[in-house]
Amino acid sequence: QVQLVESGGGAAQPGGSLRLSCAASGTISSIYITGWYRQAPGKQRELVASITRIGRTNYADSVKGRFTISRDTAKNTVNLQMNSLKPEDTAVYSCYANYRNSAQAWGQGTQVTVSS
Asked: Across the chain, which distance is largest between two alpha carbons, in Å?
């Protein structure tokens, strides 16, 4: 089993920055990809960014050049640095991890609100 706990998020002004962290525990060695989804009210869930065990990253076109996903293996965390935030980035952000053959774990979700 893998458990995920998110931290960070909150409110920011347009053009500002926020940082999300996702701490993993349990059978961490079985995780092969970790990332973040987001869902805004009335919209479909969107894959924001992901990172594989070997460090390969993937980003949604809407966040390329503004968001950076990274891993801290010493702390078993995956971070999402969000810069140049826009109002359309407002959503609930959820961390996920795929592990073992096809199991998936989710964090509790954290609200990100971008407004002036």
From this structure: 44
Query: Rounded CA gap, 83 and 81, in Å?
Result: 6
How far, in Å, CA of 31 to CA of 101, rounded? 10
For 93, half-sphere exposure in the C-beta direction (CA atoms, 13 angstrom radius) is 29
pLDDT tens digits in sequence order for the chain, 116 residues long: 999 999 999 999 999 999 999 999 998 888 999 999 999 999 999 999 999 999 999 999 999 999 999 999 899 999 999 999 999 999 999 999 999 888 999 999 999 999 99
What SS3 state is found at 28?
helix
What is the C-alpha separation between 102 and 105, in angstroms, rounded? 10
- Give all strands (DSSP E) within 1-116, no chain letters: 2-8, 10-12, 18-26, 31-39, 46-52, 57-59, 67-72, 77-82, 91-99, 103-106, 110-114
Give the Cα separation of 2 and 8 in Å (integer).
20
Yes or no: say if 64 and 56 are a contact pair by the CB < 8 Å rule.
no
